[in-house]
Amino acid sequence: MQGSVARQGRLSPMERKLRVAGGQLGPIQRADSREQVVDRLLALLTEAADLGCELIVFPELALTTFFPRWHVPDLAEFDHFYETEMPNAVTQPLFDEARRRGIGFSLGYALIERADDGTVHRWNVQTLVDTTGEIVATFKKVHIPGHDTFDPERPFQHAERYFFEPSPDGFGVWDAFGARVGMMICNDRRWPETYREMGLQGVELILCGYNTPIHYVPDPSQDELQGFHNKLVMQSGAYQNGTFVVGVAKGGVEEGVASLCESIIVAPSGQILAEATTDGDEVIWADLRLDWCKQYTGTLFDMDYYRRPEVYTRLTTMRGPNG
Amino acid sequence: MQGSVARQGRLSPMERKLRVAGGQLGPIQRADSREQVVDRLLALLTEAADLGCELIVFPELALTTFFPRWHVPDLAEFDHFYETEMPNAVTQPLFDEARRRGIGFSLGYALIERADDGTVHRWNVQTLVDTTGEIVATFKKVHIPGHDTFDPERPFQHAERYFFEPSPDGFGVWDAFGARVGMMICNDRRWPETYREMGLQGVELILCGYNTPIHYVPDPSQDELQGFHNKLVMQSGAYQNGTFVVGVAKGGVEEGVASLCESIIVAPSGQILAEATTDGDEVIWADLRLDWCKQYTGTLFDMDYYRRPEVYTRLTTMRGPNG
Q1: What confidence tens digit (pLDDT) does each residue in A283-299 have?
Q2: Which residues of B touch A143 (CB under 8 A)?
Q3: How large is the ipTM?
Q4: B186 carries an active-site annotation
Q5: Distance between B104 CA and the closest CA of chain A, angstroms
Q6: Which of B5, B196, B320 is closest, CB to CB, to A200?
Q7: Each residue of B24-52: pLDDT tens digit?
Q8: Distance (Å) from the alpha carbon of B246 to chain A's nearest alpha carbon
Q9: Model pTM?
Q10: Domains observed in chain A
Q11: In chain A, where do the E strands start and end?
């Protein structure tokens, strides 16, 4: 099972290749309209299309400011930050331009769903759109970070657990762009289970948008490590599952809160292929030689041969050390 | 649950501290006797004790050369590379000196067990010994890498799957040295499940010995990345589980095969606290402020609060993508 595998750098005409972009965003202030933001997204999409990219990944909550930094007594006060359908009037130009230029995109936003029985669900989602402007899938964030009540001691809130339900669906993969593609959102990238759930489905490319405040209130000693941690989790997740990862930030100083940029494209080797150098709107891109994945999933990370689920007795029977 | 936690660097007299060492070994050639090796281990242990360390971690298969680099038609031909009991006449001086100096150690070696019914088990193990010279636990390697039959195309074999059974026990933790301590061996460190199984048991310190040939025959493009990968997996495993990790190599050129050194001690932040700078016998050490772990396990990696086992539907129901 450890037969001959292609060496990195030795390209054959038979190999699958995908040119992919990350469309990093600088801050979106609360006063900015969705129309203004979509104009910025269109500029990034156009630049990526001009570069010959087939896919551009946009950040988490890419249509609005990161509103969980505030708390409102009535959750519904912030319903205007959520989309009710996708596409909609404001985002339709993105879908149209994607089809016209033949470039897909992945877009993070807040989604509100109202069922006929009156049930309301609020999700933090990322939608994948193909090169014909059709929706491939909408992924819901699994690992919701932060807190669920107002914390008066914080200079800014991180009340994602107030504003979003966690996904009941977990991590899927989809065949698109000639690859097996999965998605994760922000905090999902810190959890090794995220990558492994997709790795067990043969993922080759994971798309991730994030908003990461640099100041981590519960433990400020982590502030100066935000960039290191961001890379560490995506590089190790890529390596340990033999997959490409595209991680794209909304960063810069948004409503007074400095957030990490450093969008990256990571290879199955864990190496960084491209990295943003600004804290504003910026396109990064790389050519992904998709068969590179097999150099890991077909050798030392051949999971079918080497994994030991029979002795992983705690991964799903326990939530944490307390049970 | 995200209350005030101590900041890194702000030490209080109440904090638990452990001074720990890694005892890296240069090569052990086939002609070297166990007595010669134990003399080298004693020198490292003495140096660590002189430095005030309470524990020294030795590499995987630290009593012999890395014999799975050869293949023998009859497995039993290599039984002389295995210990039949621990301690034994050759290793007793290590236990005696540990007790005399009040320093524990963790030692990797091959162990053969013969049951009364004639069953024979061959394990790749690591034994933890406390400061009184008593055995705390013996851990068996879980993820056995390499191959199980002779491969004529390799310049050297990596036939661990021929020489060792995988552990049926998985990953445990033990309360020792004032900490919650776990063990892993070499290839175990590349699998996120390793750290997580121990993280779910509240591990604070993971001890790891390794032998890692720099030339990876199935995919030589990984050769130049061996050092990067070694650090990547231990740093991410430490960070994602809020634990210290001590990774200790047997490296240098052993029987013509160059092996990675770069022994490291990693903090729960993922930062490297100490790193070997030679490819020979060398002591590295660090002071571990054990409550640093809580700055991660009590905040963004509070697993009881944030993990989502209900949607990890594949981690233990599947071995790999093929089922």
Answers
A1: 999 999 999 999 999 99
A2: 306-308
A3: 0.95
A4: yes
A5: 27
A6: B320
A7: 999 999 999 999 999 999 999 999 999 99
A8: 18
A9: 0.96
A10: 15-317 (3.60.110.10)
A11: 17-24, 55-57, 104-114, 120-129, 135-140, 173-176, 179-185, 205-210, 244-249, 252-254, 257-259, 264-266, 272-275, 282-289
